[in-house]
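FORM 7B - TANDEM STRUCTURE REPORT

SECTION 1: FIRST PROTEIN
SEQUENCE AND TOKENS:
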Amino acid sequence: MSDWILNLPVLWMSVVILAAIYVATAGIYLLVTKLAVQERARAFKAISPGMLPPLSVVFALLVGFLAAQVWSDADRAHSAVNREASALRAVVILAGAFPGETEGRVRDLVRGHIQDAVNDEWPAMSRHAATLTLIPPRLADSLTLVLALDPKSAGQQVAQRELVQSIETALDARRQRIILSESSINWVKWVVLLVQAALTLLAVAMVHSDNRAANRIILGIFATGVGVAVVLIASNSRPFSGELAVTPTVLLQVMPEAGVPSR
């Protein structure tokens, strides 16, 4: 599906998708109505209504599979961002075991990483342009800094180990969110879903071609159901794009203030 549609607010996305489906449904209705004369009318009437439930079930299954995919990706994206925020918060807290210049440097690096993520990575992820090629410099510097520390007590030794683990967790969570930012429903799945919907609408139009009023009502109802299902999937199809995208709010909440806290 086109990027500009997926980046629309949900309300306008709904308007565009429903309008397109209604136009396509009207086209199907007009085509079948025009063809439903003489022998073709009898042929359409001979089509068994029993074929409509299987077609509808197949469409419903496709919607269910795609909805499960997009919701799973969204949940994993939220989880990755929350895990990164928790790890960065732990880094800030554990840095307190090394008061002074070291703590201030770690806090500055964490703050810089969050600023880079919000200002640079999030827009890139929304465009599917984020990459794992470059290691985040702030986290890399913080890991180097922590590994170079010379603990003076057992408590600092424990803090150093936990700091390394927390930074590695933040790196892994960042890697996961960037991978998930590439997640989307490919064109094959969209085509299959829309073709199945079109076939079902065509079958409905043929079965009820002898009663135009009933045909319009039934087609309108099913077209609305198709539109709602497509909006549901499209609005959640990309975890970091669109109105329902995962935001960096939790990262901003754990951003340390400039300087070392007074003691």
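SECTION 2: SECOND PROTEIN
SEQUENCE AND TOKENS:
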Amino acid sequence: MNIYPYGHDFGNSETCGVLIVGDEHRSRCIPSVSYPANSQGFSELGNKLGDGRYIYSDDEMELYMGDLAIDQSFSPDSSMGDINRYASHQSRYFLLTVAASLTDEREFGIHVVTGLPVLTFLGNPELRKAIPKALSGTYEFALNGKKRTIHVTVGQILMEGASVLPHLGLKGDLLKAVIDIGGRTTDLYVVRGQSPIEELCRHGTMGVELALRSFNQRFERKHGRELSSYELKKLQESYVSSRRPDIPFMVDGIQVYGAMDILEQTMMEEGRKIVSFVSKRWNETETGKVASSYDDVLIIGGGAYYFGEMIQSRIRHARIVEQPEMANVEGYAMAAERLLYRRRVAS
């Protein structure tokens, strides 16, 4: 049986996984939402499972996962904001779904590294112990009707941000930093050499999903209804495109426009909060210079697409990494690869 290194990132907005097979890094992200499924009814209605659409099932339940949950439910289930979700059944369902989607093998093993936000990691040692217990084990299930068996071993829990430190180069005693913007949180991580600076590592409650919640409240006040998860996803896709075309939505049988204007205003306000949060924590002078003495500042997380340029306007040498939403999980997978190698050598 093959055993692979695997990085698992159960984010508020998306769950991302990286499976390392030889020299190949296979990756996938799906929205961190699910909904009770009825696969028989789904198929009887003429629906088909396209690429990226998944139904997870085991002896106890059947779930639409990710985009399919958004397609099939106005408001799919999410554990957003619950720190215990990292050690939950739901985290395991998403781990198994994403891992199984990255290979056709019926049975295989994964050596997992995952992570926690900075203050969640520092303030919850019991949670760090609970995650391996919750996720490790042998699981038999089906993904899109195909039987699978995955043997899961959790090898390490890292602090979010620490996983991308190899991108920074840790020689010498220069300060290097990471700004990780997610769905509900923005985490700051600073190291000198390989030692984290506790005073400069901070956690803020702000991000993309919180901005979307505020947007939906404004849209409802204006038009009398909220947008569904499916509609929000389409609007987000338009927002991060180069042209940001407006999208009409139906309200009482009439197409209404202007959702993009409301979203742009809301994102700008959330971005100002994030820039203010970073500036207050990393301010170095009375003239307002922020992180000026830092050798390198990386912006990662899905929020980089929305707020990265605003941060760069304040910290000129900050840089957005390629595929910022994958930065943490790629680091987890590489850490898992090193752990698995040492384990094999030791045995």
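SECTION 3: OBSERVATIONS ON SECOND PROTEIN
The longest helix spans residues 259-282.
The chain is about 35% helix and 30% strand.

SECTION 4: SIGNATURE
Preparer initials: ____
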